[in-house]
Amino acid sequence: MKVIFKNGKILNETFEKESSSQEIKDINMVIEELKSKKEYIHSLKIDWIIEFFNEISRYWIGNKELETKVGTLKHLADFFTKENTTSMLNFALRGDYKILDNFIDLNQIKYVYHCQPRGLVVQWLSGNVPLLGLYSIFMAMLTKNVSLIKASSKAYKELLILLESLNNVNTEYIKGSEFLETITVVLVDNNDTKTHNEMSSSADVRVAWGGHEAIQTIINLKKDVFCEDIVFGPKYSYGVIDKEALVDYKKIAQRLAFDICTFDQQACSSPHTIFVEENNQTSAVVFAEELAKNIDFITKKMLPKENEGAQKKLEILTQRAKYSMMEETRDIKDIESTKDSKVFSSENTDWTVICSNEEGLYNACFSRVIHVKPIDNISKLKQYNDKKKQTLGIALNKQNRKEIINEITLNGIDRCPRFGDMTLFESPWDGMFPIDRLERWVALSKKRD
Length: 449
Known about the structure:
This protein has 449 residues and is of the alpha/beta class. Helices cover 34% and strands 18% of the residues. The protein has helices at residues 27-35, 38-43, 46-60, 64-70, 74-79, 82-92, 133-142, 157-164, 176-179, 193-202, 212-219, 249-261, 284-301, 310-323, 401-408, 434-437; strands at residues 2-6, 9-10, 22-23, 111-117, 120-124, 146-150, 183-187, 205-209, 228-232, 236-241, 271-276, 342-345, 352-355, 369-374, 389-395, 439-445. Strands 1, 2, 3, 5, 6, 7, 8 and 9 form an eight-stranded mixed sheet that branches. The chain is globular. The termini are far apart.
């Protein structure tokens, strides 16, 4: 096991496994050091912490040096502004975030209430979108917990760079380097069952990001009876456009293209299938053509795609071949119907838009591969929803849109944002308030004996 980030410092500066990280045989030493910081972070006023994160947001926005190293920071920075964190905390904590500091009267007959941090949050991050882990790391800090973070050996460079950047942020009451002492990041071999069990057993909260196999492994680790679990597991997301909204199909295509290109569809909230309720003016295939143009523009001008491996390229080419009716489908001027499948794609494997009449949801290929299909009745979507479905991007202008969403989300789908906002992390997430699970509610009788 290696410690790669501790006390605000990157201990693995070359970002290579064989470099001089801090080798640790006993994870319990790390755990005890973190627990010793609980009183410090508990002593901080929530307004101080909110202001600190607001300064982080300001520091990140427009920081060209950081963006060169880790990519765009707008989503993260926007999430941790003072306005958003205050709203998020109030929403999750019954309307008054000051409950993190003091006992608050919530207009209940018998008690006043205070939220205490649960203590040690042990977090297992995934390798596909490592920066998503910053949301749970920062929320643990917002709620005055300390965190032991197991990073993915596949991707952790950007995570450590952003954590280290907090050293450059200081406010009147919080010094970044001191605040970072409440976080330690480690690398642990997946086969090191002993260390994983020790981490899990020590946790007051376990946070797990990842695919089905990884999540199942973490859930099956030893844990304390009173430990709380927050699971961000494998989910599937898709979208729907009704015929009323399709009037503005060009604007919708612009927004949807960002959802597809952001994170290269690796996030659970990234769309993979788009259902289109056609109208007399616009068909699903015409929308697919417009979407292809926008994905191409974003890929070339705004969000270049990272190189994928040979296996992924083969998978993309196989998808294209399956749905193509001709060797290359780049002349899109004479499209009249959606009877047959149409494939729009870049000359390389940067992006692919497939339009067909196949039933159901398409298997996720990721890597900017999106399927578009017509649908004659939006209520049909309810048959596709279960607990593995997370986000439904929507462009719904029907007057009974609330009734429709109520019907189709009965068995699955946790959020229905407009297109362009699908990949924005929000609270609640995955149908829960992570903030609430990071806290312990304490009730104090109003009456004195």
